[in-house]
Amino acid sequence: MKKPSAELEVESAKDELEQFLEQPKESAGYSCPRCGNNYSRSHSLNRHMKFECGVEPQFECPICHKKSKHKHNLVLHMRTHQKS
What we know:
Layout: H1 5-21, E1 30-31, E2 38-39, H2 42-52, E3 59-60, E4 67-68, H3 71-83
Antiparallel strand pairs: 1-2, 3-4
């Protein structure tokens, strides 16, 4: 019995997705010159280089002095101080 065309299209899309996911990471368009991490978008590489790669954490909790590389993580951390 033949499969309906919609099922064939879904199987084809799944096959294409699997092939895409199996591609080597080097195919990403932007590579960090410091650590070699690859990114598909330039702004992701810029964020990585500005806040993450070889950079000390820039954001510090004024209460316990815990440091974070990203402000949003510090904001989440500071909520723990409000609960007590």
